[in-house]
Amino acid sequence: MTTLVNGEIDKTATGRPQSRGQGDWAAVAGQESRDLWLSGRGPLLLFAFSVLLSVFTYLAATNRAINFLEQREAVDQTLQIAVAVGVLVTLLVSADAISGERERGTLEGLLLTPVSRRAIVLGKLIAALTLWFATFVVSIPYIWVLGRGVSIVRSALLLGLGVGTLLAVGLAALGLLISALSGSNKVSLAISFFLLLAVFAPSQLPGGLPKGWFGDVLGKINPVGSGLHYSTAVLVNGHGWTRDLEYLISPLVLAVLAGGGLLILSERIVRLNPGGER
Amino acid sequence: MRTRLGLAFGAIAALAVIAAAPAAAQTTNGIQVTVDQPRITAVIGDRITIRAHVTNSGSTASDPLIAHLNVASLTGTYVDLEDWTAAPTQHVNPLDAHATTALSWDIQAVNAGRFDVYVVMLPNGPTSSGIGPAVASSPVEVTVAGKRTLNAGGSLPVVIAVPLLLGGAALGARLRLRRR
């Protein structure tokens, strides 16, 4: 059973402490983060992420076809990969957060602790976001090595942090919603994965999105596509930071709707059996 | 004798008029297109802007026009226009008499070498479409220097060190878990 003892979740305790402080979410976040990072799952994902960035960076620096890219474009491409994959792993970790605990039989213990369900989902959201921040930190040397000499490293890192965090918050919250509502962990992971494919697929179409009003609307609705479009506009096209702000509306709306929805619905949807009795 | 002298003066005067005409403009049927700069230097991968002004120096409104940007290599380099710009062609509304409109193209220098970049105006009216005549601007001489944008040697330490460090950390975490 999982309980809150001295501000920490104690999964071995059998009692039910009466603590119900404002910092409960911090205790849950701390415990979830320790689970993620000390279990080896976080470091392994981070290692795989660094291998991917290394391969891309080395190709960008040696392959003539990619090397042709103007330096700002190489930085932008690497930043896009860093944000996309960082957000992907964050979404997958959050998609496992509730349905996974349910299947492993540890959710019951967590629900028995004197911690509100809102604090539980908030703590899990923050723990998932630590993975995003870790991937961002790992991407810093790659961005630096590609962007030094053209004085865009700082802009690229600020853009990556801003846009990536906005996307990570929105998609992690969405992943937690899917996880809470899914009947099984497999379903939760599959839905989350396909969701991510759906939002990334349009940017991979040959020639990009179709032009015209429909393409514009589709591009602006898609939070991932529009977020990455904003960073490209600033980094590669040299637009001012405020010129394309409308492209940040959909990532912001996603973060507010998914995050708000998660916090509002948490008391109803975080259950032992999705759709069943508490 | 007078006739010969008159012809000689006439020829000289004609040559003087031709020489005095602006080098950046050609006129046909009242449409004139000029470019802002005679030459640009760039480094491969740079984005450059070609600006042109189209003037209708005639006394009547022109037909709708098509403005087409073209790139010709002066050094034998193969040029694929689509690589330089995704939109080389622009449609221009009919120009009133003595009216001028500005056009611009953002292009990317994708090949190293020397190139002439110029704008061609084509009439696109009901009777003039497909017939012409075409009016070309004087060329902008674009000199593109090549460079290697990235340094493989410089990226190698980061490319190797970061995964090694993180792999070591992940392995350490696994071993620590097994020992428990």
Molecular structure report:
The complex is a heterodimer of chains A (278) and B (180). With 278 residues, chain A is mostly helical. Helix content of chain A is 72%, strand content 2%. Chain A has helices at 24-38, 41-62, 64-67, 71-97, 99-104, 107-112, 117-147, 153-181, 185-200, 213-221, 223-235, 249-269; strands spanning 3-5, 8-10. Chain A has a two-stranded antiparallel ribbon with strand order 1-2. The two termini of chain A are 17 Å apart. Chain B is of the alpha+beta class. Chain B has helices at 2-20, 81-84, 152-179; strands at residues 27-28, 31-35, 39-43, 47-56, 65-73, 89-92, 100-108, 113-123, 135-136, 140-145. In chain B, strands 3, 5, 6, 8, 9 and 10 form a six-stranded mixed beta sheet that branches. In chain B, a hairpin with a 2-residue loop joins strand 1 and strand 2. The radius of gyration of chain B is 28 Å and the shape is elongated. Chain B starts with a helix and ends with a helix. Classes of the chains: A mainly alpha (278), B alpha+beta (180). The interface between A and B is medium-sized, with 30 and 28 residues.
